[in-house]
Every structure is written in C-alpha cells, then in structure tokens.
Amino acid sequence: MISVQIFLFLCVVYDVYPVFASVGDRSEIYLNCLYQCLDLNCSSTEKFAEKQQLIKKLFQWDCPAECRYDCMWSTVDWFKKTKNTIPQFYGKWPFFRLFGIQEPASTLFSILNGVAHYSHWKKFRKRIPNEHPMYYVYFTYGVVCINAWIWSTVFHTRDLHFTEIMDYISALLAVITSTFVLLVRVFDQNRGYKSALIAFFCFAFYLRHVNYLCFVKFDYGYNMTVALFFGLVNLFGSLLWYFLRKYQQPHVWKCAATAVLVNVLLLLEIVDFSAFFIFDTHSLWHLSTIPLHRLWYSFAIDDCLYLIQMKKVKRE
Questions:
Q1: In the chain, where are the structural domains located?
Q2: Does domain 104-314 have CATH number 1.20.1070?
Q3: Per-residue pLDDT band at 45 (split at 50, 70, 90)
Q4: In angstroms, rounded to a whole number, what is the distance separating the alpha carbons of residues 171 and 271?
Q5: Is the pLDDT of residue 16 over 60?
Q6: How confident is the model at residue 1 (pLDDT cuts 50, 70, 90)?
Q7: Residue 64 to residues 8, 108, 135, 200, 290, Cα–Cα distance (Å)
C-alpha cells in the first residue's frame, strides 16, 4: 500500500532550512557582503518597499532576504574564480530565482505531481462506487496526498518558517495515512471495529507528534526517525503482502512495484550535486515520481474491483 508519498516526507529533510551553517554562508566574503548590504539597503523599510517588484513582495522577499540572495551569488562567483567550486548556503545549493520563485524546478514538478495525483484520484472515483467498503479509505488517502503536494509546491516557492512546518506536517500525515490504508486493507477491508482502532492510534500519534514539533521542539532527528519507522512499515508490509498473496491477488504486484521504484528513485537524493540553473537532484526526484501515481491508482482500482468480484463469488 505504498506510494511516493511514503517517502516524500523523508526527502523533505533535504529542503528544510537547516540548523547548521554551510561553507558559503560561513565564508568571510559572504558575511562581509551581507553586513554591507544590510547596512546600506535595509535601514529604511519604506524606501526598500517602494523599489521592490510586486511579485517579490507577494512572495515575501524582504530586504534581508534580498541581501542574502544577492550576496549568495556574489560569493558563488568568488568561489568559482578562486577555488573552482560552488559552495552550499544554509544547507542548500544556490538556485536562480524565477519570477520570485525560490526553487522553480521543484515547484513545477511538485505541481505536476499534484495534478497527476488529482487526475488519477478522479479516475478512481469514477470507476469505484462510493458504497464500496474501501472507497473512502482510498478517497481520504488521495485527499491527504494532494494536500501534501500543495504544501510541497508552496514550500519550494518560498522557504519560510511557516511553509517549512506545513510541508513537514502535511508530508508526515501522508506517510501515516499510507500506513493506515495498508493496515485497514490487510486486516479489516470491511471497515469494522479494527479500522476504528487503527484510525484512532494512527491519528492520535500524529496529533501528538505535531503538537510536539510545533509547541515543544522542532526536532529534525526525531522527525526523521518517525518517518523512517512508518516508511519501513509500509515498504516491508507491502512487499510481504505481495509475496503472500501474489497468486490469489495478482494485481498486488503494482503495489510492490511502486514500493521498489520509490526506493530506487531515492538514490537521486543520495547522489547529490550542485544545482544546474534551476535543477538539482531533489527536483529530479520530484520529476521521476510523476509516473508512479498512475501505477498506484491502477492498483487501487484493481484492488477494489477484486473485492467486488470476491463478494459476488461468496454470494453465489
């Protein structure tokens, strides 16, 4: 019952505004540039606001953020000339802005993932009657995942504290919902009391976790541990289900194939390299996941049709 959203959360860690500094933002050339820019341009917010383009104002590029962006590229030029290398800044490779969008490629590919998800989710709704016991389970999962891609788009458009938090908790909700779908499908596809218990424990944990992140401590390491746990439950659960049921339910191969492909594509996150204009490995990962939505929803449709057929056989 795994989809690309299971590991979406794991890859968000490559996007967050990190706690530790990087070579670029620690360099003397960057710090001197930043100090001078702030001193010269940011003493009067009114003057800065008068000169600022509307599109940048909409995306909340304030004076300090503009200084960081301009000094980043000045520092990149200096590193390329003197050391023939490109440094990271605040844990990220430097990106060219496009119409005020901070990471254009990842933003575009997040949108395309959301559109693909929505398109196949609509097909699922047309093919499967809403009285089917698994209909609203898959329906809810689709809504949660579309929401995750929306916040991924917002975050890549502009990396702010609020957009970072929303990206994190939306992706985490998709991961936990995926675990919920797997457990319900395997243990209680008729949505009895077991489904209610699974839902209670999954989402009670989610609410507790979000409360801790938002109001106690935004702990990246703890977040990663939680994501890995649910991701592994989904991965091995899906593969185990396939090996146990592959002859009775041959369509389950699509679920297992999605799980394997997601893990293979995650290698793009490991093989990290400096951004080329607007592209980096994370944006390419977003691009590579777009076709997987079709495979996963094809599985969901086949699975529901299989359950309908089994119900007819039992009646006969």
A1: 28-83, 104-314
A2: yes
A3: confident
A4: 22
A5: no
A6: low
A7: 30, 26, 49, 44, 35
